[in-house]
Design goal:
single chain, alpha/beta, FAD/NAD(P)-binding domain, eight-stranded mixed sheet, five-stranded parallel sheet, 13 helices, 31% helix, N,N-dimethylaniline monooxygenase activity, Flavin_mOase-like, flavin adenine dinucleotide binding
């Protein structure tokens, strides 16, 4: 059995950030276990046409590793993935990463105060501290439609895009039209002969206003890093203004809704299509989407928007509840991820063999989004109630990493056997979280991936990103049960 001070699960955005900061603190006895053959997490798996981030690249990047050479305001998949590759190489993380290693389970040993991580290959690694970088958007969700396995053509989920399927001249059915689908629909519509898009509910869409950075801008960013930091600050403040709509501030909701309506009317002139694409819920209740080409694609003559509920999948295509079957050669699921079953790919067993899935049976909960009781020495990144609807998740993860590294330093330097958030502290914290949540638009009557089946918002942080920054500045050790080694 291999032993390490720290095991990190995942070499995505969160895991890499954790590795960098551990090294910065002089903690080098760690390993990052990555199930794929490359870094970047979601940017390694999602390779669909048009794949990119809806946060400007200048802020969808680490504060400690600025990139003055972003080609565009909103860079696409290949450039984002290369950024994380460069980061891993720059900070010497590749020697700490064990690729093609999928973690199957992790068990806490109370007597030893350590975790035993077991991989699907049968390897076991013991560590004082376990950090999950699994995040929230890693397991594709495919609805269980009757007859799906009978479809005669090619079918795949957008997060596992089949680049071997040529869409030229094909009839394509796309189920879903949210964040991912919004990006690949325009590209599919350009290639295919006919596209049927099946929409469950309309989305609020605002213009991305993307453009290429000029050479002179890149040169200035490289020569004067403070200019790029100022640019980052501007993006951050714009996101904080956008949070006003999520916090149910009527003026900001009106302003954003007005912008979205104007954008819709500018590109969709057909009254019936415009009606179908008009949301019937408060702005911000579901994720607000950004695009410069989505509405243009929806207005194409070869694209048909279907709003009737799907009844089943047939060998020939998709059947709606009225019995109509629209034929398709290719079926693409743009149906997102399993978002509320957090950390699902790995089975975690804490004190007395308690399963994390059982502990979270009524909805995932964590203290400050990074730890939970009954699971000592376990920390999580991008955990429950840390997602945003208005700013960069990398900003949030950096605050979490800063907090967790301080906890790990305390645990290791003071030779503590275990560190575990107090049960009463955890309960009070999550009661406050859900209380704060009632002030947001997320609790409104719309379906979203932010909620679990019971309607509880388990993914999102209910306050501003600025608030989270101060919230995570320093761990309050009195909130933890500490056991000496």
């Amino acid at each position: 059995m291999t032993t390490k001070q720290v095991v990190i699960i995942g070499a995505g955005m969160s895991g890499l950030c954790m590795g960098v900061q551990l090294k910065q603190q002089g903690i080098n006895d760690f390993v990052i276990l990555e199930r794929s053959d490359d870094v970047a997490g979601t940017w390694n798996y999602n390779t669909y046409p048009g794949c990119g981030c809806d946060v400007p690249s200048v802020f969808y990047s680490y504060s400690f590793y600025l990139n003055p050479n972003w080609s565009r305001v909103y860079s696409l998949h290949d450039e984002i993935k290369q950024y994380f590759r460069d980061c891993a190489a720059h900070f010497g993380l590749n020697d700490h990463i064990q690729f093609n290693t999928e973690v199957e389970r992790a068990d806490y040993d109370e007597e030893r105060g350590s975790w035993t991580v077991t991989t699907k290959g049968g390897e076991t690694i013991e560590s004082r501290v376990l950090v999950s970088g699994l995040g929230q958007l890693n397991v594709p969700f495919t609805p269980d439609f009757e007859g799906a396995d009978t479809f005669a053509g090619d079918s795949f989920h957008s997060a596992r895009w089949n680049h071997g399927v040529d869409l030229a001249g094909k009839k394509v059915a796309i189920i879903g039209n949210a964040a991912s689908a919004l990006q690949f629909i325009p590209h599919v519509a350009e290639a295919a002969e006919q596209v049927h898009v099946y929409q469950r509910s309309a989305n609020y869409v605002v213009p991305r206003n993307d453009r290429a950075y000029t050479d002179s801008e890149k040169q200035r960013f490289a020569r004067f890093p403070w200019l790029q930091r100022l640019h980052r600050l501007g993006v951050f403040l714009r996101g904080e203004i956008m949070y006003g709509a999520i916090a149910n501030k009527k003026f900001f909701q009106w302003l954003l809704a007005k912008d979205a309506k104007k954008y819709l009317e500018e590109h969709i002139t057909d009254p019936e299509l415009r009606r179908k694409l008009t949301p019937d819920y408060a702005i911000g209740c579901k994720r607000i989407l950004v695009s410069d080409n989505y509405y243009q694609a929806m207005a194409r003559p070869n694209l048909n928007l279907v709003t009737k509920p799907i009844q089943s999948i047939t060998p020939a295509g998709v059947q709606t509840e009225d019995g109509e079957v629209l034929e398709a050669d290719v079926l693409i699921y743009g149906t997102g991820f399993q978002t509320t079953d957090l950390m699902a790919p790995v089975d975690f067993y804490g004190r007395d063999g308690l399963s994390l899935k059982d502990a979270w049976a009524e909805g995932a909960e964590a203290y400050r989004g990074v730890c939970t009781s009954e699971f000592p020495n376990l920390f999580m990144l991008y955990g429950p109630n840390t997602n945003l609807g208005s700013n960069s998740i990398i900003f949030m993860v950096e605050q979490q990493v800063n907090y967790i590294v301080k906890c790990i330093t305390k645990l290791l330097t003071h030779q503590l056997k275990s560190m575990e958030v107090n049960k009463q502290v955890l309960r009070a914290y999550n009661e406050k979280m859900q209380g704060d949540m009632t002030k947001t638009v997320w609790v409104a009557s719309c379906q979203s991936w932010y909620k679990n089946a019971a309607g509880k918002v388990v993914n999102n942080w209910p306050n501003s990103a600025t608030n989270y920054y101060f919230h995570m500045r320093e761990p309050e050790m009195s909130d933890f049960d500490l056991v000496d080694g």
